[in-house]
Write a structure and sequence with these properties.
Strand content: 15-25%
Strand order of the largest sheet: 2-1-6-7-8
Low-confidence stretches: 124-194
Structural class: alpha+beta
Distance between the termini: 7 Å
Mean pLDDT: 72
Radius of gyration: 17 Å
Order of helices and strands: HEHEEEEEEHE
Largest sheet: 5 strands, mixed
CATH superfamily: SspB-like
CATH class: Mainly Beta
CATH architecture: Roll
Number of strands: 8
Shape: globular
CATH topology: SH3 type barrels
């Protein structure tokens, strides 16, 4: 089998991360629509991730945040997003590059994406550094409370290449003034019990 010099697997990952970017960008402008809410999983020691030392110590590998009722100042950039969330009543400001995402899940419509984070993207120095939590911002309720569904996630099939799967994970640009309300309890290292779109299925074995 010939070597994939184009790296279609990486192109597909970039394209699917663009879906998350679009959803968050629309959320900055319009808020969380209807019953939608997002579970965003990310690698806490990936390059460019900025979280407080308190959170990094509690979640040294992977962390899932929920964007539903209580978050503020969501801002999305070309490469990532920032958001304010309260953890145990303590306000925190998180900066998460899109390359650090390992999973995205919207239980309201049973849709999920799983990403593969290359080992080379991990920033070991970041794992030892910390950022101070930002000042608390005002929070405004924008959507009715909903219960997260545990139904199966829709699987999106794409022809050809097949490969092994990896594990899931958790949430970048324009600043938005108070988009939601206090987020439901943070779910760390929680993975939806459903089939997700695996990028591994797009990569050819060498």
């Amino acid at each position: 089998m010939s070597t994939d010099l184009i790296r279609y697997d990486l192109l597909v990952q970039d394209a699917l991360r663009g879906v998350v970017k679009r959803v968050l960008t629309d959320t900055v402008r319009d808020g969380v629509p209807g019953e939608h809410h997002y579970y965003v999983t990310f690698i806490t020691h990936a390059a460019g991730v900025r979280i407080s030392s308190r959170l990094r110590e509690k979640y040294p590998n992977e962390m899932t945040i929920v964007l539903q009722h209580q978050f503020w100042d969501l801002a999305v950039t070309e490469h990532g997003f920032e958001v304010g969330l309260a953890f145990g009543g303590i306000p925190e400001r998180l900066l998460v590059p899109f390359d650090a995402l390992s999973a995205f899940y919207d239980p309201s419509v049973q849709f999920g994406l799983k990403f593969e984070v290359e080992a080379s993207e991990f920033d070991q120095e970041a794992a030892n550094s910390s950022d101070e939590p930002s000042e608390q911002a005002s929070v405004t309720s924008i959507a009715p409370k909903t219960k997260a569904s545990k139904a199966k996630i829709k699987s999106v099939s794409i022809p050809e290449p097949d490969i092994s799967k990896k594990e899931t994970a958790k949430k970048p640009a324009k600043e938005s003034k108070a988009l939601t309300v206090e987020p439901p309890a943070l779910v760390a290292e929680a993975k939806p019990t459903a089939d997700v779109v695996s990028l591994d299925s797009f990569r050819k074995k060498n």
